[in-house]
């Protein structure tokens, strides 16, 4: 009997763009998946050997890295933040485009970082934030927030934030300006490395189906 594959996909901004790619790769979730009133987190698909779990983006990486799910879709920001050795990201799906950036109040944007040795930053990306500022010779004290990052400067929690930026409208509405881009972001297909070796017959065709669906080579 074939063991079922568990495919982790993220709630939120990437989901709507991911569904057409899933369909092109031959995977369509059951009707309940599209029911906004449903509280279910696991769903059957048109394939008896594949089920879908819908979880928060950061949790997609954790489920796949630890083998609870064998394959998933998540932003490259999450892949880089966790830096799990167990994750392999073979395909850039060319969706979910945005950027991870530093933003500050307008009146702070002219501060000379060369005069500073320590910076407090509100973010849900402490690893990438510290790494970015270390490269600039600065120590970053990261205040971990999971949302409403834009409030931090106005309430005195931090002068700067590091967060995902798309149009920049939310920053502008909260009196912030984008000052530095840390990295461009797009969604990646990720697989568990051990599962990819042990269940190559199941996972390799799926990876190839996504490669064909987006028409791109391996992710850099």
Note down, in words, how this protein is organized:
With 220 residues, the protein is α/β, with parallel strands linked by helices. The chain has two domains: 5-96 and 186-214, D-Maltodextrin-Binding Protein, domain 2 (3-Layer(aba) Sandwich); 98-184, Periplasmic binding protein-like II (D-Maltodextrin-Binding Protein, domain 2). 30% of the residues lie in helices and 31% in strands. The protein is built from eight helices and eleven strands. The protein has helices spanning 15-24, 57-65, 76-82, 126-135, 151-154, 169-173, 193-198, 200-214; strands at 5-10, 42-44, 50-55, 71-75, 87-92, 98-105, 118-123, 139-144, 160-165, 176-185, 187-192. Strands 2-3-1-4-11-5 form a six-stranded mixed sheet, sandwiched between helices. Strands 8-7-9-6-10 form a five-stranded mixed sheet. A hairpin with a 5-residue loop joins strand 2 and strand 3. The mean pLDDT is 92.
